[in-house]
Amino acid sequence: MTHPDFLQSGNERTTRIETCQHLLSLAWSSSSEIQSVSEQQSMRGLFSDEIDALQQQSCSCEDWSQVRLVTPTATINESHAIGLSNVIQETRFADTAILVFVDEEEDSTENPTWIKKLPPGLHSNLLISNSIIDLRAKVYRNTSICNTYIGPFATIINCGTIDWSSNDHLGLMTITVGAERGGGRPITVHPEVDMPHVVQQMKASALHKTHPSGMIHMNIVDQHALVRDTPTLESIYLHPHASIQGATSISNAILLPHSKIASGSTVQNVMLQWNACIVEHSSVSDTLLMEEAQAGPHSLVVSTILGPDVHVSAGEVHASIVGPNTNAHHQSLLIGCLWPLGRGNVGYGANVGSNHTGRLPDQECTAGEGVFWGLSTVIKFPVDLSSAPYTLVAAGTTLPPQRVTMPFSLIVASGEGNDILPGWLLRSSPYTLARNEAKYATRRKAQRHLDYTGWKILRAETASLCWHARQALLSPASSVSIYSETEIPGLGANRLSERGRLAGVEAYTNCIQMFALRGLWQFIVDNGLQRNGTILLQSELASSIMPPELVNTSNVEWPPCPWETTVDDWTLQKFFLQTEFPLCDSSSEIEWLDSQLRALIQLEQDYAHRVHQSKRRDDQRGVQIVPGYEQFHDRAEDDTAVADVKANAILVEEAILRWLNGKNNGE
């Protein structure tokens, strides 16, 4: 469900545009008569004493009849000469200028203290033309402000030229992702778009058309917005409390509330949602930054969609979709990468972008949720890891074109190519997953995207991918010492040893079984089932007898995103319960249930132990290598993620044992 702020934001922009259009039409229709603006306000030309008062303050205008004054209707016939002379000084007007004069103090503001101390009004501006200015704003020392609305309590100070380009179409933008040449996937966005709508277009065969909420050929700097120390601004829309501070050049930009462009950045054709920012000498063009996304410092971002809570700094991103909670904090390259579920990392020196075939840069890469591109990796396109979530491409690995469908894997360079270890994170580095689970929960600052960004790592989609991967590992086409894609589809251009195959089967099996048994226990808790009561699980389980067709890794297609899934966890868990733990005729239902719940206790304990051990290995290695390591690094025993997993295992064990002893209903 779309957050209500998305609709409200678009409506507010439409209302502001309609208000400006109304004021301009009134100003252009007459130069002197009193005209009604609204029930509370009216518009008229300046009285002669008001013109004299402004001229005494070193103000000038080629034609004072084109300067219009908007005041409360009750005072429209009164002279405001003294009030105007107090707030307008050393400013030249040209063409149409609409001055909104409201005699009231600012009641609340989030502006910095230095702004609060500035007197309101227009001071020392070389030129203001074709503009609407609320005189509660603070407009100081600007070279030229043209075709601009400045709202109450907004601040524009020390800027060069602010103007509108008639060629710009603010409010709608088409971003081409994937192949940079010889194709590409056009995504049409507006400022309030979310990732599900982006993905819908990405998967579609035709361009999805969207219509902007309203258009006007005029800059908007709305109330409490701040623009300062920027030489060139063209075609901008700043929602309340947005800011542009010390940028180099801005062209065609929409900033939603509390978003920011700052510190020597150069920006063209961008949309920033709430609290998004472009900072520290970054260059960004043809890009949408969703809520809480950040580009900078020193970023180069072109033709890209950055999802909520994405941070990109020091590197380059081109023609990509980067999903929620993805980080590229170091000097790296990301080109033509379709990564809608994000949650990954791009290591220093990673080159995810060999999209040039010697003819055209016409190739692309698809990445699954949580993929980690290691230090100095080289990824040669085309590559598809969309069905291999949480795969880690180890440092220094060169990945040739391939498609991998083994989730939670490690791909590492070896002497004879690359080796793949299916399910390696599940078996050998579960601390990574436990920490990520906690990290995603605590770092989700994008409040307006919370309804679809909070999915769990282990859920129906990922468990189904593990099931398909295990099926492939269990039945290779032939028995050899080293397997390839020929024997086991889904390995990509990588090698797999027999030992690695067996380890992968074990890792996926433990994952599938823990997922299934967690569902069983949750079903008991949710339904308040008593051990000494009537359980009748057999009929419940019989309702799901088909294999998990949630994903189909044998076809080259996108796996479903969490918000697209029609199969819930329990449906898949019931299938796994039947296939992993068949209920034998010789066993009663209650005996079967007791056995499976005790198996869940063991699996949770084993998982907690492996999480602890995978972190503890780092501790042991560090102590052997770095002097004073213990004094300056948290031990596994003190790690929050380790403690949370251990605490959960204890809680599950205690609750199940109480249930098995018939003491309560498992809550």
TrEMBL record:
Gene3D superfamilies: Hexapeptide repeat proteins
Ranges for domain DUF4954: 44-464
Position of the signal peptide: none
Pfam family, any one: DUF4954
Name by which UniProt lists this protein: DUF4954 domain-containing protein
Organism: Fistulifera solaris (Oleaginous diatom)
